[in-house]
Design goal:
With about 475 residues, this protein is mainly α. It folds into three domains: about 200 residues, Up-down Bundle (Growth Hormone, Chain: A); about 55 residues; about 210 residues, Growth Hormone, Chain: A, CATH 1.20.1250.20. Helix content is about 75%, strand content about 0%. The protein is built from 20 helices and no strands. Helix 1 packs antiparallel against helix 10, helix 5 runs antiparallel to helix 18 and helix 7 packs across helix 18. It is globular, with a radius of gyration of 21 Å.
Length: about 475
Amino acid sequence: MSLNHSSPLTLPRTRIVPAIVAVAFFMQMLDGTIIATSLPAMAATFDTDVVTLNIGFTVYLLAMAVFIPPAGWLADRLGAKQVFLSAIALFTLSSVACGLSETLGEFTIARLVQGASAALMTPVGRQLVLRDTPKSKLVSAIATITWPALIAPVIGPLVGAWITTHVGWEWNFFINVPLGLIGIVLVAVFIPPVPAEDPRPFDVPGFLLTTVGLASTLTGLELISTGNGGIPGVMLMTLGLGAGWLAVRHLRRATNALFDMSVLKLPTFALATLWAGTAGRLAINSTPFLLPLLFQVGLGLNAVETGGLVLVYFFGNLMMKSVTTPALRLFGFRSLLVINGIAAASSIGAFALVDGQTPRALLYVLLFACGLFRSMQFTSLTTIAFADVTPSQRSAATGISSMLQQLSQLLGIAVAAGVIRFSSYLHGDTGEGGTLTDIRIALLVVAAIGVLSAIRFLGLPRDAGLEVSGHKG
């Protein structure tokens, strides 16, 4: 039963539910980045090498690819609150299992379960937020559940390095226990029950095609981005794209399709989620990879100096929530996505001009601005995507959005790494991280993609999302 938005409980609930979902998202996304600096220590524990240890991350991606597509169907059948609560509990338990693992096999199984539970969290959590949030509060709610995706990739490696050095890599997983317990209690107490809907038949062909398409594409991108398998990676991506095409063809024709493809007929959702939105997120998601590389490999700074600079970028991200709402009210979605998108892309490209002589104060300003523009664009993209989604389309919208956002995260790294490697190959350098010139070229390429994405939003109607943004037109 939907909430009565005039009730006295409405105002706190429109704040509480997104905050609770954000805690779960933060736990999940922090886990994906915090262990990046722990690989050598983990490999030593499991008596293997870092390359072999990569299987623990590949199965995580595969599990996410398998369980994101049916998440909406499970939420409809069992109830969104029940599925979300179970996902948090399972993620917490599997995190403990990861930390207690003594062999690579045990770790791989634990990561498989972790990936499956993480896959259920994102679309179902968004579904809960959309269900209880009136359009006038949507910007604030989306901003709340967006900050984990912006902050976790920035602070994760720093926190992981400190924990691994001073406590032990296992605590990168054990840290999820208090977060998970807090999340479980908050969900149980504050999120109202969501009754299950009439179960529709499960679309097995759609599930299989979607899973093969997403799993193959994600694994291919992972192999390409890490440089561990160029040809297999391309082959898997080809398989994934082919399966994805067949999946879309099936979903458009099936009576009880896994996803309601009518949501793609909404101009706001299609533009913010498909090509323009994916390209914009690609640029956004490349910066946590490219900036530390620029500072350490390109400029020769040490880890501590790099961490200090990344924190300034992190503070720019934090300013997002207080700035985005008034900016949207002033400019509206169409103008903001274009103007801020070009500014965000330009700030990324500006790092190509940075060198060892750049004043530190100027670097701080650029990092803060880049973080602010990045956050505002990410929040605006996510909010406009759901501005016109009807209650019957929420399940499909959250599932499709989650799949494409997962894809864009790896695309950002894969494209940046691919440009660096190709540039290095052209001038005969075989170094792992490329040279300053290679990194600069990657920054410019990513910035160009961001600009093209922003310009594409000129196709939005001028009155797009007015009820959500509060813009007077």
